[in-house]
Structures
1.
Amino acid sequence: MQLNSIGLDVTKSKSLSKDLNQLLANFQRYYQSLRGIHWNIKGKRFFDLHLKFEELYTDANLKVDEIAERILTLGGVPLHTFEDYIENSKVPVGKNITKDEDAIRLIVESLSELLVIERAILDASDEASDEGTNSMMSEFITQQEKTVWMMKAWLAEEI
């Protein structure tokens, strides 16, 4: 087994970089959808939701940077074109969403998809003894589970 300069198996690090690039692509599309609903939301809840969506896209933007930097730390190259993001992502795309419930449902669907990817990366990073990636995924999962719960509560739906 060949180790990289941070003490991780080179082969497992390359595999994790690939998985993290998939997460990066999905986060970029999620971020763009959040920007769109932030800009286009209408209705009586505009002020509250406009601020909440800004909070969410700011957080997503920070996570995008963290993911890209982790890919680099593992020796990979982060995806960085819209073409790459479209090709490597599954999160739903929100287009011209103006209604509050549609926006919240899009967020829940997107986070649910991100959580699936993050749990798979968590398992792989655990197997690779990659505490850096493992810790990042644990933090993301904890935050996003809470956001899903809050969004579902706002919709008056069960988790």
Note: The domain at 10-155 is CATH 1.20.1260.10 (Ferritin).
2.
Amino acid sequence: MSNFLIPAAYAQTAGSSGSASGIMSFLPFVAVFAIMYFLLIRPQQQRQKQLKAELKSLRRGDRIVTAGGVVGVVQRTKEESNEVEVEIAPNVRVMVMRDTISTVLTSTAKPAND
């Protein structure tokens, strides 16, 4: 029975040390990373840059959505502070941190239900 397996072992080639086969086996990993970068990572980085710019230029009258899902209108901002005063209902104002704002809907944008 052991003689049956020996010819198959001799028929195999001794591992070649060619660099072309090493590169070809590594190529699919590079391709998957490139696809992941262009489809997932890069658009997310661009969206983060855009949100940071919008938060920097936040002004009175802008509609915002916080990370908790609270929608409100900016009433007052302080450049030196990280806090923004937001009106979430008539005569109900709260202070929120700029970092908790997830979306900025400018005052020129139309709400979806109107």
Note: The domain at 58-106 is CATH 2.30.30 (SH3 type barrels.).
3.
Amino acid sequence: MKATLLSLLVMMIGAVSFAQSSTQVKWTFSSKKIADKTYEVHATAAVTGNWHIYSQNVGVDGPIPTAFTFTKNPLVALDGAPKETGKLIKKNEEVWGGEVRYYENKVEFIQVVKTKSKAKTNVAGKVEYMVCNDEKCLPPSETTFSVAVGG
């Protein structure tokens, strides 16, 4: 009985901790046509307070880099990897054993995609990220997205 209650308590604390990262970052997703059958998918992270979100190339082992996983869609081809735009901060952090790369306030990730036809479809997937401040880091979070392209 004690083991069951302890397990339940640990799961509840974990669920609350997991949900906290999503309150520190507000994601918005959009698309923009840049050429015939070519679009930019924009994922914008607005980071609140004194928190920061890590780059896709964080620089050291330890913090979880921001990572995008795209759902396979036979009507869409990804063109390269997502690019980052924002004020990149590079800081030597003793706790991580080297220079880390992160963003405060706002960062935009831009993925170029090419549609294989003029049909309307979606680019979908998830973004995994971690936020920290000068005192602590929250567990990694995931946000799913779906953005219309084509048509």
Note: The two ends are 58 Å apart (CA to CA).
4.
Amino acid sequence: MINDEYFLAALRLAAGNDPIPSHVSATARDVYGLRVPRAVTATPAARTAAGPDVRDPDGCHLVRFVSDGLTFDLEVTVGDGLIDVAGQVWPHPGEDAVIDVKTPHLTLTRNLARNGDFAATGLPPGWLSVVCHRPGRAPVQTRWVRIRP
């Protein structure tokens, strides 16, 4: 036997009469704001035989992402409730290339050293992505990873 309330709810949904809850729309707008237009997404790659995300004896996460001719090596450490990221992009993407280390609420922009090194400290724990902006080419971004204290 079909429950009348479920049946009526299904009819309303099918007819398009139920509004989308406001918190769902707000979350969708927030997520859309995190995108990087035209960016190529780098995917995790094996850094060692243990896999793409390795925790070393000091508690650091070592992660490698690869895409579009660039490799990101990231070392993520958590201390005092904050995240520090030290990374290298190779091969060097060009003199005017910059790195954005992003969280949902904060973006830190860093210039690359000649060897492709960069660092960002004092980030809040949670979701993290790194974007390389290259002159004359599409940006490359890592997938979002969740870093927990």
Note: The chain has a mean pLDDT of 86.
